[in-house]
């Protein structure tokens, strides 16, 4: 069962999210926070699998909050006789329409994914499960806005990113280019004539080499490094 910490400014919204998630047999809400400071404290104390966060939390340092939660590790025992295992909470951000820049900043800070605030209940619960499993989630509209933001920020081809890009093999660059285009592992396997298992291995190595924790962060890297350039 995946545990969730709900972070939202509005009590009615927190109640709605709690009720929605609690109704799922495989999800449980272990706490609620109203601002970033509470989110960091409760994440540290409770060790949730997912922090479901409103991007417009009261704190003005929301991006720093996401960074602190994403980087902090909690040591959780897997059993009475087993050694403690490292646990990191994964942040899923709810983004209002017109605030896509928050999504871009959140991803750079380490968020595992983002959804529009008008997502359906089915989309939201599915996204929580995906992020809890260690994968990333986004939507085509927000991905397009993300790409536009990268272009607007003029971060394409930054020296630091180009150095990290140089650590990738030619095949890894091909796979990363395909990931940035929005292809699934199955589609990448078909187009590159390799197995889905091999694609998964390539993606895992890419994330390690570029210091990313989620697939969607690799998309950001692909544009910032200059490997992929947005169409004019």
TrEMBL record:
It comes from the Bacteria. Pfam families: GerE, Response_reg. The keyword Signal does not apply. Keywords: DNA-binding, Phosphoprotein, Transcription, Transcription regulation. The modification 4-aspartylphosphate is found at residue 54. Residues 161-226 form the HTH luxR-type domain. The keyword Nucleotide-binding does not apply. InterPro entries: CheY-like_superfamily (IPR011006), NreC/VraR/RcsB-like_REC (IPR058245), Sig_transdc_resp-reg_C-effctor (IPR016032), Sig_transdc_resp-reg_receiver (IPR001789), Tscrpt_reg_LuxR_C (IPR000792), WalR-like (IPR039420). Residues 3-132 form the Response regulatory domain. One of its GO terms (molecular function) is DNA binding. GO terms for biological process: phosphorelay signal transduction system; regulation of DNA-templated transcription. PANTHER family: TRANSCRIPTIONAL REGULATORY PROTEIN NARL-RELATED (PTHR43214:SF24), TWO-COMPONENT RESPONSE REGULATOR (PTHR43214). This is DNA-binding response regulator. It comes from Streptomyces lacrimifluminis. The lineage of its organism: Bacteria, Bacillati, Actinomycetota, Actinomycetes, Kitasatosporales.
């Amino acid at each position: 069962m995946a545990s969730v910490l709900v972070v939202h400014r509005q009590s009615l919204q927190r109640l709605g999210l709690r009720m929605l998630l609690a109704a799922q047999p495989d999800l449980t809400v272990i706490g609620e926070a109203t601002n970033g400071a509470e989110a960091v404290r409760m994440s540290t104390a409770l060790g949730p699998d997912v922090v479901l966060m409103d991007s417009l939390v009261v704190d003005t340092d929301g991006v720093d909050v996401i960074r602190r939660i994403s980087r902090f590790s909690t040591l959780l025992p897997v059993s009475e006789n087993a050694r403690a295992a490292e646990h990191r909470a994964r942040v899923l951000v709810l983004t209002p329409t017109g605030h896509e820049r928050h999504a871009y900043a959140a991803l750079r800070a380490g968020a595992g994914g983002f959804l529009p605030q008008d997502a359906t209940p089915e989309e939201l619960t599915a996204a929580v499960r995906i992020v809890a499993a260690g994968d990333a989630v986004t939507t085509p509209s927000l991905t397009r806005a993300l790409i536009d933001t990268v272009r607007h920020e003029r971060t394409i081809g930054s020296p630091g990113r180009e150095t990290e890009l140089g650590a990738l093999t030619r095949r890894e660059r091909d796979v990363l280019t395909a990931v940035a285009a929005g292809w699934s592992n199955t589609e990448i396997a078909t187009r590159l004539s390799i197995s889905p298992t091999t694609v998964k291995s390539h993606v895992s190595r890419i994330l390690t080499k570029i210091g990313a924790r989620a697939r969607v962060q690799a998309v950001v890297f692909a544009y910032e490094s200059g490997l992929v350039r947005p169409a004019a």
